[in-house]
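new request in #modeling-help
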Amino acid sequence: MTQYTPSSSEPGQRPPNFWNSSRGIASWLLTLDHKRIGVMYLAFVWAAFMLGGVFALLVRTELLTAGKTIVEADTYNQLFTLHGAVMVFLVIIPSIPASLGNIILPLQLGAKDVAFPRVNLASFYIYVIGALIAVYSIFSGAVDTGWTFYTPYSTTTNSSVSTMVLAAFILGFSSIFTGLNFIATVHRLRAPGMTFFRMPLFVWALYATAVIQILATPVLGITLLLLIAERVLHIGIFDPALGGDPVLFQHFFWFYSHPAVYIMIVPGFGVISDLISTFSRKAIFGYRAIALSSIGIAIVGFLVWGHHMFTSGQSELAGMIFSGLTFLIAIPTAIKILNWVATLYKGSIVLRTPMWYTLGFLWLFLIGGLTGLYLATMSLDLHLHDTYFVVAHFHYVMMGGTMFAFIGGLHYWWPKFTGKMYSEKLGNWACATAFVGFNLTFGSQFFLGVAGMPRRYYNYLPQYEPLHQVSTIGSYILGLGFFMTLICLLRSLSNGKDAGNNPWESTTLEWLTPSPPPVENFAGQPTVDRGPYDRHAGSGH
Amino acid sequence: MSNPARTYHHAHHFPSPRDESEAAKLGMWIFLATEILLFSGLFMAYAAYRYTHPEMFKTVHQLLDWKLGAVNTMVLIFSSLTMALGVRSAQLSKQGQTVGFLAITLLCGAAFLVVKYFEYSHKFHLGTLPGGGPLGHWNPDYAALAHEHGAEFVEKLKSLDSPHIFIGIYFLMTGLHGLHVVIGMIAITWVLLRAMRGDFSSKYFFPVECVGLYWHLVDLIWIYLFPLLYLVG
């Protein structure tokens, strides 16, 4: 049995929690409390999510009809670039680790804080500075290269590429600092008795993510610096007119950006593992396999970047090797999915909002993952490369996967860090709306892609119009779903019922402490002598 | 003189001072890994262009003065020694020695930058700067170069494909490294001031150790840059 004896407090009187223990704007702006930093991250990530969402809806509205619908072609190029850059760098990468991870990871470990609270706060401010520079670039000429900044176009266009690239460079440091903090925290601040194989799978996933953040992000940093040097000094490394090699940029860029897709999705795997165990009222099936498969993905994920260059003149042999390695990634990923499904089997499934998001995730991620295998097949990729099929594939993974896991996790831990229960009815409707809208928006794009519709095009042939219209209408429904989610969560702050310590009958440490937790997280030091999902007291591991 | 080290309490969220210093060192090592990967992009660019332009690398690298590079290599290796001795003095609670060794390390960093300044200004003088094409700054003063390296070298230089790329890589690598030297010197100044105040003792010295680790990495990167850039072929 896990030991935790809270020190006694006055009966009938609520001890202060991290929201009300100190007051005033300065107590937030200068806070070193991981929970407050996580809440501030959460607010910024949602603001950026809405901004990127508005760009997406504008892009979809423009594509409602062939030819001009609402904006000119140049504006359209800027809109899809901003949508991609904002969603990748400001939303998905920080979403789960920096907001939920910051709040929950120390609680799940039974720690008082992360290892380096000042670095944590610095990471937040670096994020804010990067975000402000990114927003500034919108007003200083915007960017029209796509979020991948491919050379030679990005070194010759007059739009403010350097500003946006500088923003991404700065945001990288924020991500590195978060990863560094999590690794040190996991190594040094686990509660007594919490061995590595007694850590919740959310922690394992954040740990694997942190390793990728540490090893990949600096390479993006230097790549973006080289891009700026190319634009400002014309050093000639990427610009073919000056003797440079534009494909070298693609190699550098994807050496970061492919592992970065695992920075985006692996934390989602962690959330789903915790949720599926809790709402099946059952210990997770294949705990070690799931934990180690995160590490496996982190390692193999570094060796597959070349599958973005099947059509860039990469040698056939290199293409075959990268294709084979990409198929290899399917193994640890399938291990996770099969173990999750095995956890559901004979579980006592409780269908609350976080569980609906979890089931949505399983469907959407399965489709996203399997279509990834189509794209890893070289001969098929020659046809599908740079079509809407690719767009649909990565939205199923990044949005259907990561964002559904993020929002599911948000509903799950919301009662813990706010102390309030949201409306289950509104939460379920929001989830259903988003799920239907999502499949209309991106399901139709698989068909568009197979039919040959290239991505990023402003105009299209008449035969693509019906499917584009389905996609656009779907995107409005999807937008409505996320808007309902936001209302559902915010409304709970004023009229939600008190959550109590453990509303979901969860087994991990964060549910032992009051909701919301006190500044020190636990009134005494919890100790651990069993696995994280063990529901049978006294049964050992 | 009061000695705060005797009353230093570790940060409250660590179970013990040892956990704090171990976490700090782990954090520093992870940070050093990110630094190596930051430079790795430049090393890869170097490798790619040296592979495709071997003659160009061999010729253009003669624009660098290997003697100045060698002097700077010596200076940095010596500074690594004094840094290590500084950490050891801090561990042994020898405040005076710690201050002395850290000050020498700081001076070595400054000496390195002075030599680098002369190397850079010579290149500005000769117009051997990064950037090809009409907008770049590669605009060599061939008369001065002929005077310095001989007419044959200038003919060779003129015949090369994209000589500005080597100089671009040179400036990026040494520039980024130079920036790290400056950051290292700021960090050394910080621990030097704290050492003068008497903050460190055998019970609490991990800040000196972490700054030392960083400084050794800065040296180590230079030890790779020197042969790769100055001693081609």
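bot summary: The CA atoms of residues 368 and 394 of chain A lie 7 Å apart.
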